[in-house]
Amino acid sequence: MTDATKLAIKVALSLALTIFLALSFGWDKPYWAGAVVVIMATTESYGYAKQKASHRLVGTLVGAVLAAVLITNFGQQRELFFLVITTLGAFAAYMSANSAYGYAYKVAFMVAMIVCLAGGLSELYSFQLGILRLQENLLGVVCFSAVFSLLWPESSLTRLKTKAKIAKEKEAFKNVKEGQLRAIKFFCFTSVCWALWIYLPIPGSFMFPMLAASLGISLVEFNSAVFNKLLVVLYFWAVVILLQYVFLLPMLESGWQLAAFYFVNCFVIWRVFHKPEQLVMRLMGGQFLVLLTMNAQHLRPVYDINSSLQMLMHLSVLIVVMKIVIQIIESLITSNSVENQ
């Protein structure tokens, strides 16, 4: 059995087990735990994934506390709330390029935004969401760690290589100019998205600004050339997964069948697109597998394609807006460099 097949089995088993257990515990949003598994699985080794998991847990805890502070102090002041979260997001984007714990900063900001906006800026509901988010993250980490520890465990040589890679990356996180550029990209992109949400009749309540904040903090490190490919990948996975969502998922009647569905799809994604240069395909495929079918993961499944299509529309608009904003920023930087020469 090849290493790619073993890895695909481990990732698929981790995802299926996580979603099955979340449903068995009666939790309302198993896709959060599934997203944790997908993100951890896109790292290059188990040792590196464990470090990323600890950052994610710390970021989740800090983000939940930050959400409570934001709602308490700025929940009824839309303009001030927007200014504060945009500043915090720009700071997180800056630290992502200048700290070995940059991923924890990103997670803390994303969790704060999800808890604030998914809860409709309600203190009680947002507190419950924060607790649930922490539980889901912990479940994903535990399932992923258990499977990767027990099934074809990592060799000591791989651990040594991982430690060397981590040490090298810590030295690389010292780029002030790159951090400033990411902060500017995030601030401009988020400002445009909030303006669109406020002044245009965009459906979906707080979904659009919530996705904008999460997508913005995740993609600020890329240049504009990446986003054309990202749109192609977006629609490819949307077609593959939504066809199954419409024609296959409604036929599944029990938790183990749903777990088998995620196992098979995840295995195919990780086995077919196993090469390092296909990381985006794995990440987007795994995230879309979990998110576009999230209504099927409720205790009482709802097979309504409208919410999935609405999310697809939001993501399409956001990627186009981000491409335009980053292109403008890059062109301004290029013109300034030419003038200085």
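(ticket continues) Second input and output from the same batch:
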Amino acid sequence: MCGRYVLHTEIDKIAEYYDIDLIEGFDYEYRYNIAPSEPVLSLVNDGKRNKLGYLRWGLIPSWAKEKKIGYKMINARAETLGEKPAFKTLISRRRCVIIADSFYEWKKENGGKQPYCIKLESGKLISFAGLWDRWDHDGEIIHSCTIITTSPNDLMRKIHDRMPVILSKNDASIWLDRTIQDKTKLMSLLQPYQGEMQAYPISSLVNSPKNNSPELLQSI
């Protein structure tokens, strides 16, 4: 699964990387322990261009009676997207990219769980493949998302049996393009990341979402 991650790249560099026009005064801050239910910096396409904004992490389907369902839907398995009612209609019309610098995962070892920080060897931004939806209930509107996961690559297999889908820059553009409706093509993008990655153990301070500082990224 993917349950915590990090984003601390300067906002102008993020906009430049994804070729996005920033709104003046865009609200942004470095975050070192992003957790479910929090707003996450994401890219969506409005039918004409890609836009940068925030989605709540934990998908609340438009048809859901209660928003608390989002706590159970922070991740979506790539292998079953076409089968789940909450996800299958979103593949065609509501795809998104969630932006990160690195992410955390916990490895079972020595009778406990050791947290690791994982990032791309290149140091480039991570583009998580995601789905989003709009929930409108009794006047409350929430735009929320889920991060898609897949089977692990060689590095992640040593830590966990799942990993988030990480898209290349080109594949992220394809994923966001709403004119592309070919589900076979879209699903083919949801594969284990094959580029170089690195992972290292970090302090258990990351276990609490209340901790949010660069210290969490330090190797032990």
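Agent notes: The mean pLDDT is 96. The longest strand covers residues 126-137. Closing as not reproducible unless the customer responds.
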